[in-house]
Amino acid sequence: MSKISAAITAVGAYVPEYVLTNQILETLVDTNDEWITTRTGIKERRILKDEGKGSSYLAIKAAQDLIDKKGIDPKTIELVIVATATPDMKAASTAAYTAFHIGASNAFSFDLDAACSSFLYGMSVAAKYIESGRYKNVLLIGADKMSSMINYKDRATCIIFGDGAGAVLFEPNEKGFGLQDEYLRSDGSGREFLQATYGGSSYPITAEAMESGKQYAFQEGRTVFKNAVFNMADATVKVLERNHLTKDSVDWLVAHQANKRIIDATAQRIDLEEEKVMMNIHKYGNTTSATLPLLLNDYESQLKKGDNLIFAAFGGGFNWGAIYLKWAYNSNS
Question: Quick one: 236 exposed, middle or buried, by C-beta within 10 A (0-12, 13-18, 19+)?
Fold first, then answer.
């Protein structure tokens, strides 16, 4: 029997209509367009403003986009994974709710949270279900409503994050396409530098905590930046070396869109040309779990069957890693 690998066979995406530009942020906090652009590469980000709508709304929209483009029956989907750092609720599965609303009535489902590395880890998990031979259609969605945990008086975080979702379908492949290798790591000693402290079991939310804004995301920017630059680049190099890949054999770097300087540093570490680096941070900012699938959606028309893609991400936890995937289809769009 031929070896089964897990290939991406379809993508979909959704971003909210409201555009939060750098110019608008200038009216909220002490910042300006030049400062934000120079330090992050971000020009605008999308925000889901509708009351009562959370990450599941984004996930459902992205999944439906994929289903419509692929023309599949949602009842054939066997597993739905929602990678998210901002689930709708603390004790109810966002993935189960998403699966219900897209009509994936034969699927089981669960959430996966590894902060900004959630989708990367989700790729590994989805691939294992396919490689087992037991499942043939796994839907992986990266969705985050980061605006729900951002303090728009804190210029260190409010300039960075946006809302959005992207989805991919994994199916079995016996011709060598799909996920080839992975290098995934974590270091819990770093969690103090990037977290949303209150609202979890260690620090339940209180009126006092709410009044002081402790429910919002916090990051120590310099430490996070230094660790992200080193670890994303290091993981990428390790995957290339293990698979005897050179810069000439890499077609695309699909890097988490946290900061343009981090993406540039990762590309420079492997001496990769700028035109091979997927980039949309200027349009969406950091959408956490959604950045990687949003890149795939934006660049889908440029991807060719057999292309070598290197995915890399870094997030709170700390969690990071890289994945080598061989693209499985030519887009008709």
Answer: buried
